[in-house]
Write a structure and sequence with these properties.
Blueprint: H1 2-29, H2 35-49
Helix pairs in contact: 1-2
Length: 65
């Protein structure tokens, strides 16, 4: 039962990501969108697909003496 819920959540998240990518594409292609907004959309897409993590994730470290 829990496995099915997790799969449904992953599928919903994948649909949301696909929709957001499509919105970025439409905004990039629209002629009335300013160039700087297109640049930001391009940077967001490049960062999302980049294998390099420019902003490192927080890793909690426990100091045990």
């Amino acid at each position: 039962m829990g496995q099915e819920k997790m799969i449904d959540r992953v599928k919903a998240k994948a649909r949301e990501i696909k929709r957001n990518i499509f919105v970025l594409y439409l905004a990039y292609k629209h002629p009335r969108v300013p160039w700087y907004a297109k640049l930001i959309a391009l940077c967001v897409a490049a960062y999302a697909f980049s294998p390099i993590d420019l902003i490192p994730d927080f890793i909690p470290i426990s100091w045990v003496s």
